[in-house]
Write a structure and sequence with these properties.
Number of strands of chain B: 22
Helix content of chain A: 10-25%
Largest sheet of chain B: 6 strands, antiparallel
Number of strands of chain A: 9
GO molecular function (chain B): ligase activity
Low-confidence stretches of chain B: none
EC number (chain B): 6.3.1.-
Structural class of chain B: alpha+beta
Radius of gyration of chain A: 20 Å
Order of helices and strands of chain A: EHHHEEEHEEEEHEH
Helix content of chain B: 25-40%
Protein name (chain B): Glutathionylspermidine synthase family protein
Radius of gyration of chain B: 21 Å
Structural class of chain A: alpha+beta
Strand content of chain A: 15-25%
Organism (chain B): Corallincola platygyrae
Distance between the termini of chain A: 28 Å
Largest sheet of chain A: 6 strands, antiparallel
Number of helices of chain B: 10
Domain Glutathionylspermidine synthase pre-ATP-grasp-like (chain B): 15-383
Mean pLDDT of chain B: 94
Mean pLDDT of chain A: 83
Strand content of chain B: 15-25%
Low-confidence stretches of chain A: 17-22
Distance between the termini of chain B: 11 Å
Number of helices of chain A: 6
Oligomer: heterodimer
Chain lengths: 197, 385
């Protein structure tokens, strides 16, 4: 057969529709340093704290940034904040905390349980007071345990798969340098109208 | 290769709406045209189109390896000298290519002749990869097309497989210019494929790309862009104000900068010079360097041109056929004429998709003129026998 076995769309047409920033659904989340922090907050049952923490640790294995050397990892996360994996093939930062959906609260209901998310959080060397996701998205202050925050749901639910990439150097994780100008590309298009080939 | 009249689907508009095909009609004229389809034999597809596409791709890659190290050739292709190093770097570090489309004159007999290689910003991929596939599925279901019919179209499968290979860190930003429905849909389709490959994606317009204090390109949330698919020509990027930051940028571009060389019509004379007499190539020369084998009928094309703009056909005893436009300032090439085959009132162009350096499927375009343009009709195809 000379054609694709099957084709589908997940984004275009009635399959999806583009998610835009302003209309994106929000998710209420809470950040914690560890299980104890979560239990102390009295926001969740201890078993929820443990369950969601374990889910975050499992996600951490998959999505934490990977570096080819200790040096490269420590450039982004600080000295002694990285560990090599069991087989020693790359280095990853320690998980600095985790965030969980507020709907995980009192979720004896199995349906809610499955739809409640938790994700690992990290602290970058150049912005130590801030929690960030593995994709470098700033979440809130480290230590502000128990404070509820609203996030675009996709930040919570989209798990980046970093397992395929091992960075050779640091410098890509941490505080963002501010954008100083825009509009430096695309001047030809405005001048000519549409095109394609 | 036959052109066969066929009943359009009764639910065509519903299908188009369902699958986000918003530009099936352009300026009131049908763009997607399923009142006919083309029928090929498997031998025609494999021997005359697929194999030559794969072979030409290798010749093109060899040629890039020569051009990037040759200042004389880079100057001849009118590549700005400020970008030579950047292009060489992108080639040396083997920055991966996602896709391209070779356009052929082919009438079902004899060798297909390469007219040009849309190596940087080809469009019509959604129509070819997805909507054409659905058309066959639908027409087989209603009995309009024979159940045993196949199609040369593994484009989407290959795109999804290739996406994971071109992204360095599991994330791709997609960008096109404002104000083009077709471009926006093309990019949305590719973004869809990237998501199906398990990648994280974001969209922004080319005009919205930012520059941060580290002189790196940023998205609307100020994140540095690690990988950018841009449906925007390299030669325009080279002319834009941000071009001076390209060389030190850590962004990986799809297509990579070395593709700027293959989308240049100057590769046609260079390929002919290296492979004179190749059955799938036409005699081609930089204007002013013509030799006798060009013949008296030829086509004149700007080094940079899209949608047929500024192309003219010169034939003895016939009026000059010419399409206007704003290209051509950088010089021209001339190419021996291999007229497109004519079916009734339509001239037919075969586009052959290359995904990750492999031939993957067809786009067929028809026009009432010998010069194919952006408004030329897209016609589906099948393989029988």
């Amino acid at each position: 057969m000379k054609r694709s076995q099957a084709v589908k769309l997940t984004l275009m047409g009635l399959a999806g529709g583009v998610v835009t920033g302003c209309s994106e659904p929000q998710e209420q989340i809470v950040t914690f340093k560890d299980i104890e922090d979560c239990v102390d907050s009295n926001l969740f049952e201890a078993e929820d704290c443990v369950y969601q923490y374990e889910k975050a640790v499992a996600a951490h294995q998959l999505e934490a940034p990977r570096y080819s050397s200790r040096f490269a990892c420590e450039q982004d996360f600080g000295q002694n904040y990285c560990a090599s994996t069991r087989n020693g093939s790359f280095w990853q930062p320690f998980m600095a905390g985790y965030m969980m959906s507020v709907i995980a609260r009192g979720v004896s209901d199995a349906i809610y349980y499955r739809s409640a998310y938790s994700r690992p959080l990290y602290r970058s060397r150049d912005d130590w007071g801030m929690y960030r996701t593995s994709s470098n998205y700033p979440i809130g202050s480290y230590g502000s345990s128990g404070k509820m925050t609203n996030l675009p749901r996709s930040i919570m639910t989209t798990v980046p798969n970093n397992s395929g990439t091992i960075k050779k150097s640091g410098g890509q994780y941490g505080k963002k340098a501010p954008t100083i100008k825009r509009g430096g590309f695309g001047s030809k298009s405005a001048a000519r109208g549409g095109w394609g080939s | 290769m036959l052109r066969i009249k066929s009943a359009p689907r009764a639910n065509l508009l519903e299908r188009a709406n369902q699958y986000g095909f918003d530009f099936h009609t352009i300026d009131g004229e049908p763009y997607w045209d399923e009142t006919h389809y083309y029928q090929f034999t498997l031998r025609q597809i494999e021997d005359d189109l697929e194999d030559p596409t794969n072979e030409l791709e290798q010749l093109c890659l060899d040629l890039v390896g020569d051009i990037v190290r040759d200042e004389h050739l880079l100057a001849k292709l009118k590549v700005p000298s400020s970008q030579w190093h950047h292009i060489l770097d992108s080639w040396r570090s083997k920055e991966p290519s996602l896709y391209g489309r070779m356009d052929f004159a082919y009438n079902g007999q004899g060798p297909a002749k390469l007219l040009e290689y849309n190596a940087d910003t080809p469009t019509s991929i959604y129509e070819a990869a997805f909507f054409q596939w659905i058309w066959l599925e639908d027409q087989v279901d209603t009995g309009i097309v024979w159940r045993g019919a196949d199609q040369f179209n593994s484009i989407q499968e290959k795109l999804i497989a290739r996406m994971a290979e071109v992204s360095p860190d599991g994330e791709i930003h997609f960008a096109c210019c404002r104000d083009s429905v077709e471009d926006r849909a093309t990019v949305e389709y590719l973004e869809d494929c990237a998501r199906q490959a398990g990648l994280t994606t974001k969209f922004l317009y080319v005009e919205e790309i930012g520059l941060n204090t580290n002189k790196q390109f940023t998205d609307l949330q100020d994140f540095e862009i690690s990988c950018l698919f841009k449906l925007y020509p390299w030669e325009w990027m080279f002319d834009d104000p941000f071009s001076e930051y390209l060389a030190k940028s850590k962004t990986r571009f799809i297509e990579p900068a070395w593709k700027a060389l293959l989308s240049n019509k100057g590769i046609l004379p260079l390929l002919w010079q290296r492979h004179k007499g190749h059955p799938n190539l036409l005699p081609s020369y930089f204007e002013g360097e013509e030799q006798a084998d060009l013949g008296h009928s030829y086509c004149r094309k700007p080094l940079f041109s899209r949608e047929g703009a500024n192309i003219s056909l010169v034939r003895p005893n016939q009026p000059l056929l010419e399409v206007g436009g704003e290209y051509g300032g950088e010089g021209y090439i001339v190419q021996g004429l291999s007229p497109l085959p004519r079916f009734e009132e339509s001239f037919t162009l075969i586009g052959s998709w290359v995904i990750g350096h492999q031939a993957a499927g067809l786009t067929i375009r028809e026009d009432n003129s010998l010069i194919t343009k952006d408004t030329s009709r897209f016609v589906p195809h099948i393989i029988v026998g």
